[in-house]
Amino acid sequence: MSAKMIAYVAFGGAAGSVARYLVMSTIGHITHTSFPYATLSVNVIGAFILGAVIELMALVWSPAPEMRHLVVIGILGGFTTFSTFSMDAFYMFERGEYSAAGLYVAGSVVLSIFGLAAGMMLFRQILS
Questions:
Q1: Backbone phi, then psi, for 61, in 5-degree steps?
Q2: DSSP label at 97?
Q3: Do 39 and 88 contact (CB within 8 A), yes or no?
Q4: 38: which of 11, 47, 80, 103 is 20 to 30 A away, CA to CA?
């Protein structure tokens, strides 16, 4: 672990967090609901992008370790938001919104896995 690698991750994390804020704010303005569509969206979008990046790195792009850390750990780690997902689910359960909470938890897991697979498959088709 080097100071240079930490700086790449920190820069990427800042960029990812700003992107998450912008996307979540936009979705919040559109949906106007207590259901956490914004958190669900950034997690699915982040999973899709990670799938695409994995395929890019497997098929045509061999970035330096610093770039991999910048993108995967920094940007995508800052963009996706498991801690916010956990908080959203907890508060929904606490408010007695059991069906919505269950749908949110199941949807987040299933759709994020689907997003990852879709990103991988799309870029596998494009690049192969």
A1: -125, 125
A2: -
A3: yes
A4: 11
Distance CA 32, CA 45 (A): 20
CB atoms within 10 A of CB 45: 19
Max CA separation in the chain (angstroms): 48
Burial class of residue 27 in the structure, from the number of CB atoms within 10 Å of its CB (0-12 exposed, 13-18 middle, 19+ buried): middle
Single out the residue of 71, 68, 70, 79 nearest to residue 112, CA to CA: 79
What is the distance, to the nearest Å, from the Cα of residue 107 to the centroid of all Cα atoms in its chain? 14
